[in-house]
Design goal:
The complex is a heterodimer of chains A (266) and B (65). Chain A has 266 residues and is an alpha/beta fold. Chain A contains nine helices and ten strands. Chain B has one domain: Roll (Ubiquitin-like (UB roll)). Classes of the chains: A alpha/beta (266), B mainly beta (65).
Chain lengths: 266, 65
């Protein structure tokens, strides 16, 4: 299968790894980790700040120096109204119509609210946004979001920050097969490079993660590990893996085997 | 006038959103604003009058996942 380049809302990308910018031990490690990840898209947010601290300003200059394209989020929003207002504020500040849309329903699992998500997505698409919805892996929800005008979907692998990997590979695979031409990005729950590779081997177009790199003992090395895993998984998917079998199949030719004429058991 | 700024009640002199940003030291900063949960564009801050009890959000770029 041909390894066609990924495009998100018309923007071609050479890296299929998207990374978050939160929770790093220091701004310097954040910058080094983003470079090591090769990511061309990084997620950012809008938050309150005390008038005097100006930490938002130094963060924003750091991101601009890295030259990455930013994907603002509506993290923490718990209603359609909050998410829509936050998206509008983000569009002005970050000068992009891209929005990672989060409408959170459950405090323990940070599970997306599917109903609010569809409603907010429809409002934002009408307002000219390019919406990347953070969603559960539900097939019907995916259909509704596409109907609302989302051209990219971002189902969770597992709850945000849990590091559990792909909780429901069956449903994720069904989603992939049902929407072969929609860019699908696994967002959240990834813990190790193996999880990211598994997502890519399912045929997902990309992986978005934050905590697994930022909170690793060595974030810069982990960023590199994820870059390699995402690339390996993509190559493997395009190379068409063998189907699993229940029984063994000898890899060494049977023809010409010594002692082939002897009874199996002496 | 008593209003709420980023979740905290405070007395301010400013009569408009633009004046409030100046009063609070945000005048040269990259911020996004909302009034009573509605987005207010930078271009509209000058003409956005404040009244007692209003809730203003002033947000800045931050790290995100």
């Amino acid at each position: 299968m041909e390894n066609r380049p990924l495009a998100i809302y018309g923007t071609p990308l050479s890296s299929r790894l998207l990374v978050g910018t939160a929770q790093y031990p220091s701004p310097a490690i954040l910058a080094e980790a983003i470079k090591a990840s090769g990511a061309e898209i990084v997620t950012v947010s809008l938050r309150r700040e005390a008038g005097a601290s100006r930490s938002g300003e130094s963060f924003w200059s750091l991101i601009r120096e890295l030259g990455a394209k930013v994907l603002p989020n509506t993290a923490g929003c718990r209603s359609v109204k909050e998410a829509v207002t936050t998206a509008q504020m983000a569009r002005e500040v970050f000068a992009t119509s891209w929005i990672k849309l989060e409408v959170i329903a459950d405090d323990d699992l940070l599970q997306p609210d599917p109903f609010g998500l569809v409603e907010a997505a429809a409002i934002l698409v009408r307002d000219g946004f390019n919406v990347l919805p953070y969603m559960t892996e539900d097939l019907v929800l995916a259909e509704k979001l596409i109907g609302a005008g989302c051209e990219v979907l971002m189902p969770w692998g597992a709850p945000i920050g849990s590091g559990r990997g792909l909780n429901n590979p069956f449903a994720l695979q069904a989603l992939r097969r049902r929407f072969p031409h929609v860019p699908l990005i696994i967002d959240a729950g990834i813990g190790t490079p193996a999880h990211a590779a598994a997502a890519m081997e399912l045929g997902y177009d990309g992986v978005l993660l934050n905590t697994a790199i930022a909170k690793a003992g060595d974030p810069v090395s982990m960023a590199r590990a994820f870059a390699l895993a995402v690339e390996a998984g993509r190559l493997a998917y395009c190379a068409e893996p063998i189907p699993p079998r229940d029984m063994a199949e000898p890899s060494t030719p049977q023809l010409g085997r010594a002692f082939a004429d002897l009874p199996r058991r002496a | 006038m008593n209003i709420e700024v980023n979740g905290k009640r405070r007395d301010v002199q400013a009569a408009t959103l633009a004046a409030l940003l100046e009063e609070l030291g945000y005048e040269d900063r990259l911020v996004a604003t909302a009034l009573n949960r509605n987005f207010v564009r930078a271009a509209d801050r000058q003409g956005t009058e404040l009244k007692a009890g209003d809730a203003v959000e002033i947000l800045v770029p931050r790290q995100g996942g």
